[in-house]
Amino acid sequence: MSLYVFQDQVSTAATELIAQEVDKFNAASGGALVMGSEEHIGDYIEQTSWQLIGQLAQRRNAYGDGDVSPTEMGQLLDRMVKVDGKIKPITITPTMLRRLGKNVAEAAAVVAAQAAQAIMQDYLNASVAALKTAIGKQSDSSKDLSGPKATPVKPTLAGLNQGSRLFGDAYSNIVTWIMDGATFHDFGDDALKNANNLYQIGNVNVMQDNLGRRFIVSDVPALYDTTGGAALQSVLGLTVGALALKTSPLIMKAQDVLGKENLKVIMQGEYDFTMGIKGYQFKDGVKSPTDAQLTTAANWTRIATSVKDTAGVQVIFGNKAA
Asked: Which of 6, 66, 75, 235 could bond 179 through an S-S bridge, CB–CB 3.0 to 4.6 Å?
């Protein structure tokens, strides 16, 4: 089998696996994180959403004849930023495949499956890190329940309710909660212990309790903060369409490596995705951002007037550094 066929097999299989997993994840997450394939051009995709008009209903003077000023419908410009990723170089030796009794087609399937799982985890890691950064910088969308170092506060459903309270009468708009594995197990509530598993890929799990609440559980690094000796556990409560992530096909390339003791085939891949957060705008001019730039609070600006029109809330448990 030629290298061209091999690299095409891996690219096609991985892209198809990702598309299948994305569809299942979207359904399981309740639509809080919406991922989908689409070719995109340029570094930003601009989408327009109509802003709710404030104070639209007002008092009038039934006996007056004065002029009133019209209110123009405003527009909120949500900028989606393109993030670039790669599949690091891997080597495959024909001798190794023969000794294992495997063929190149099977190797391509294994590489594709592992690449799809890694890319799905990257989607989630980057999305949650950006969401935590954007939501956490706002005082009206973040609830810090953490205690001092000596008396850490354990996660509870009552604590999550305090986060929902930030949405006022729109509390039911929060459909999904995201947390890491340790935080999930710290909940002492039987409702979570008996939650039904809706979806799983690798270490990413989506569950639903008997009240219909959905929980995405994954050890996303951004959800656990140990800076300065702290042990802060962040849980994000998200609305429908909190984050949109547009994917692109994985491109894998392979080539022979000569001049070594053994013949080798080296493979490497790249992909990108475009991400936008409901009610927030990423800083213009920052292109192909790093993880550090995605998690820099100054790079995210809230453009929605009301917190009820944003991606959701953050609740912080655990203990502070001092």
From this structure: 235
